[in-house]
């Protein structure tokens, strides 16, 4: 009994130690998630972007405190007796308490701006009527990290006109060179030309529309379709009446090196795919496209069919009938010694055979994939 108590005590002590060891792991896992969230908040944006995020957070604070503590009642009386909450220091403090709390990325950067430029914010707060656009006053005029739209660089010079087919590098910031970064299909200093592989689908004095050449074209084209190709890519050949015409490698050449593969043509190319496992050579996909049937398969109704399951079913059926025969022979042997015992055993055997056959009919063996394909093709399902 004393040994049993010692054993139980050791089990409880071990469980306690394991639980204590697991607790720091759970804390560590939560710590890892917190660290990831903290890292996201500390990620940095470019100066102009971070300033814009700060201004946006400040404007949200303005919206949340729009009516302030004097919402409802006689607003005119409140303005006279209690002072204007709209421009009060109380409202500014409330906004500052909300700053950057709704930001998931760059929160630390936003808070740094709020701390380092608190005096600038208070200066603007007292002169809102003179500078109604907080972003322009704070980010462009005061911190000088942004420019107006379509201006760039240290001195906020005007961007290059990209004709609506690209964007100015450094647009709205104090960075970049002001040159155009053209959209796909456009090129040139002002994005007024079509790049290689594209053609002019539409053009007037103010608008240019470039469309991509047909996939068959090599070294450009003069218009849509295959007729306007300058040259044809590999896998195509030029027809005078039709332009670039796809070469059917599956017909023109022996494309697939493998004996148990078949060829599938595609525009300008082809693919070699493996034949069905029931095939020994094929002309396409599936057991009905075999040239010959592989070992273990037999051609039936135009389809190579797996014989393994059929042979196994035959073996199981033969074994089952042998078992029934053996039981019947046993009954006959018992009958020679005891008629009533043989009768009872015969009834049991009869019931067993009947139930077994009934169960096999109502619960058929699952069909093999080849059987399902064959029945689907013949409309038997």
Explain this structure to me?
With 381 residues, this protein is of the alpha+beta class. It folds into four domains: 37-68 and 81-146; 193-250, no CATH class; 253-305, no CATH class; 308-377. It has helices spanning 2-42, 47-64, 75-82, 89-98, 107-116, 118-126, 134-142, 249-252, 308-337, 339-362, 369-377, and strands at 151-152, 157-158, 166-168, 180-182, 186-187, 193-194, 198-203, 208-212, 217-221, 229-232, 236-239, 243-246, 261-266, 269-274, 297-300, 303-306. The strands form eight sheets. Strands 1-2 form a two-stranded antiparallel sheet. The radius of gyration is 42 Å and the shape is flat.
Major sheet: arrangement of strands: 1-2
**Helix vs. strand class:** alpha+beta
Q: Regions with pLDDT < 50 over 5+ consecutive residues? A: 1-30, 377-381
- Structural shape: flat
Proportion of strand residues: 15-25%
InterPro entries: EGF (IPR000742), EGF_Ca-bd_CS (IPR018097), Furin_repeat (IPR006212), Growth_fac_rcpt_cys_sf (IPR009030), LE_dom (IPR002049)
Disulfide bonds: 182-191
Signal peptide: 1-20
Organism: Clunio marinus
């Amino acid at each position: 009994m004393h040994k049993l108590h010692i054993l139980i005590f050791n089990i409880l002590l071990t469980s306690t130690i394991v639980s204590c060891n697991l607790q720091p792991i759970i804390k560590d896992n939560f710590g890892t998630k917190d660290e990831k969230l903290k890292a996201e908040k500390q990620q940095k944006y470019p100066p102009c972007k971070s300033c814009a995020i700060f201004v946006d957070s400040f404007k949200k604070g303005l919206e949340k405190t729009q009516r302030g503590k004097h919402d409802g009642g006689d607003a005119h009386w409140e303005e006279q007796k209690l002072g204007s909450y709209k421009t009060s220091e109380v409202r500014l403090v409330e906004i500052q308490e909300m700053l950057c709390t709704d930001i998931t990325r760059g929160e630390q950067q936003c808070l740094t701006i709020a701390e380092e430029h608190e005096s600038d914010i208070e200066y603007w707060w007292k002169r809102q009527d003179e500078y109604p656009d907080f972003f322009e006053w704070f980010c462009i005029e005061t911190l000088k990290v942004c420019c107006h739209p379509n201006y760039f660089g240290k001195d906020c010079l005007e961007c290059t006109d990209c004709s609506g087919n690209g964007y100015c590098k450094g647009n709205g910031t104090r960075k970049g060179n002001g040159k155009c970064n053209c959209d796909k299909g456009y090129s040139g200093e002002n994005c007024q030309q079509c790049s290689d592989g594209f053609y002019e689908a539409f053009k007037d004095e103010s608008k240019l529309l470039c469309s991509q050449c047909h996939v068959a074209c090599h070294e450009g084209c003069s218009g849509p379709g295959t007729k306007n190709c300058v040259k044809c890519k590999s896998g195509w050949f030029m027809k005078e009446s039709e332009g670039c015409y796809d070469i059917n490698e599956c017909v023109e050449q022996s494309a697939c090196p493998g004996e148990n593969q078949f060829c599938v043509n595609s525009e300008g190319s082809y693919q070699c795919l493996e034949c069905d496992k029931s095939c020994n050579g094929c002309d396409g996909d599936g057991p009905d496209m075999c040239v010959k049937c592989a070992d273990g398969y037999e051609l039936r109704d135009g389809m190579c069919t797996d014989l393994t399951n059929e042979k196994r079913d035959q073996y199981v059926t033969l074994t089952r009938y042998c078992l029934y025969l053996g039981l019947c022979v046993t009954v006959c042997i018992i009958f020679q010694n005891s008629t009533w015992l043989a009768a009872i055993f015969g009834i049991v055997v009869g019931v067993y055979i009947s139930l077994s056959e009934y169960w096999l009919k109502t619960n058929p063996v699952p069909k093999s994939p080849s059987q399902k394909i064959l029945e689907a093709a013949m409309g038997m399902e």
